[in-house]
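quick one: magnesium ion bound model?
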Amino acid sequence: MAASAKKSLPPELAAGSDIVVQSLVNHGVDTVFAYPGGCSIPLHQSLTRFRDKLRVILPRHEQGGGFAAQGYARTTGRIGVCMTTSGPGATNLVTSIADAKLDSVPMIAITGQVGTPVIGTDAFQETPIVEVCRSVTKHHYLVTRVEDVARVLREAFYIATTGRKGPVLIDLPKNVQMAETVPDYDVPMDLPGYCVDQPRATPEQIAEMAAMIREAKRPVIYAGGGVIASEASEELIKLARKTQMPVATTMMCLGGFPGDDPLSLDMPGMHGSVYANYAINEADLLLAFGVRFDDRVTGKVSAFASHGKIVHVDIDPSEINKIKVADLPVISDVKFVLTELNKVVEAPEDLGDWHKRIAKWKKDDPFTYDHDYQGILAQHAISELSRLTKDREVIITTGVGQHQMWTAQHFKFRRPRMHVSSSGLGTMGFGLPAALGAKVAHPDKLVIDIDGDGSMLMNVQELATCFCEKLPVKVMLLNNMHLGMVVQWEDRFHAANRAHTYLGPIDHPEATGKGDGITPEHRYPNFVAIAEGFGWKGRRIDKKSELVDALQEMIDSPGPFLLDVQVPYQEHVLPMIPAGMSVADLIRQ
Ligand SMILES: Cc1ncc(C[n+]2csc(CCOP(=O)(O)OP(=O)(O)O)c2C)c(N)n1
Ligand SMILES: [Mg+2]
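yep, here:
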């Protein structure tokens, strides 16, 4: 027990709230993103007693706190911890819990709850948050006895960080936080039914995989978030180099294989590269490592990777054969498979023709944009930022929309955990709080949120957290004054009928799609003034000639800095395979 806690408590007894915080410290937690309220006051009081061990960041909205915890977790591989009060505090956290679930992010969410005597009476600020979150957590607890607190915390850490990682919710009634008991931090866990062993491929499965690789003429590695989660990036690089097999990395795996490696096929899927999609389509062997055949990757499932065999390795048995039937299904930790495979694998005999075909696809259809455009294109701004930061330790977060897809396409991610994005849930408002969470964990790295104007407004209050908590993150705002990604779908599939996707005042003709552009005096809101209001530095640009200078100013600025880059809304993210369609329906540049 920490010395400071010992002093303030009788030697043997501890309050539930102190047991929670001591457990966090015991598990190596150094930061908690926590917003207080009536039902979590005891927890916050306890947090103050552990000031020397635990930093508490006060977000300005609980959803921001949840995303900040994720930014911390996704960039470190360690668990992210967030805390709220009951009722509205807890429900404000739901989206970030669901987001962590879909992207398998290890997170512990602790919510205060009304006292056990009044649970179920519609007490003030009571919501049944375990019921609300049942299907969006990996596991959840409503703790009704102080004697259970230490065990529940132990189990929660174990569940969140083992197997397929994910969020665990702990709902703690106020009277349980205040009740006292003699804690046993080594109490045995009680988890019947939870598989404790990390599943591992058998030697036969490894040998079969190696044989399939040896035979392959057109192999492709399809690498996903599981590669990052199992810290298997180095092993993946080794396998690819040894066998010369090309690698497509999903959004969850950007940087898991270096984007500038000649073997990289970049990202597959709806807005993926032509060459990744063609290669997967033509592959005679698809090595799916830590992926879940998400519909944004597969499009029409029956047409996806339909010309070859599929090896699917995943730690979660429920992913195997869920979407695509695998010829060789392997329930295993991905790193274990790659390590074992590297010991025995031999390169396929001759991949010369395959590499030639891929090279031609790459040459014919690279990610590109109109380099002669007079103003600033979002793609250009991202490419320049990628170039200017290429020798820096940089972490990029994003919002959700066109800017997110262009970031995936045009920023070269070279290392795992340098790209952080809400992939499965696709939650607008993720970028800024995720960036501040990443900055807490990596004070020496350059942390930049590449955001959209719509997304930015969803958690704009976190500008205050960055300023007040001394977290100098940067925002490159790709401001098109529209919900650009929805505009793109309106243009493509709804005869360009604008349906509530313009973000300025409704009396402007652009609101109904009848305008002929947005003039500077119609720009709304004034993001630079907003940023300045929160204590940030800000700059607005719309000329191509200003871009490099402004980006450099943002990068070099010691404090938090928002760069409002005015970009056109008429631009579409291409290539595109429309939802539910196949590579045959691919729309090029
Ligand atoms: C919380 C949430 N609400 C709605 C959506 C649906 N949606 C997806 S992209 C998008 C537009 C995003 O606009 P912006 O952040 O400005 O990015 P842009 O596409 O313009 O780059 C919307 C509304 C979402 N993904 N998340
Ligand atoms: Mg926008």
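Residues 435 and 458 are 14 Å apart (CA to CA).
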